[in-house]
Design brief:
This protein has 66 residues and is mostly helical. It has one domain (12-62). The chain has four helices and no strands.
Length: 66
């Protein structure tokens, strides 16, 4: 990951999972398909990771009127 410019010292497994799920679902992957790839038992887990990602939080913040 460092070779492509991602600073690994600040990452955890969960932050990488959040980013991957968010990006995949933004590109059209269904929550059920993400559940399968992430080996989760319920669809709630990929949705939780997506809503917890920094990218998703930044997108929500950009929509707040100032």
């Amino acid at each position: 990951m460092a070779m492509v410019g991602i600073h690994v010292a600040r990452l955890s497994d969960k932050s990488v999972k959040s980013l991957a799920v968010t990006k995949a679902m933004k590109k059209g992957m269904s929550a059920d398909n993400a559940r399968e790839h992430g080996r989760w038992k319920t669809v709630d887990m990929p949705l939780h990771y997506k809503s917890s990602s920094l990218e998703h939080k930044e997108e929500l913040a950009s929509k707040v009127p100032v």
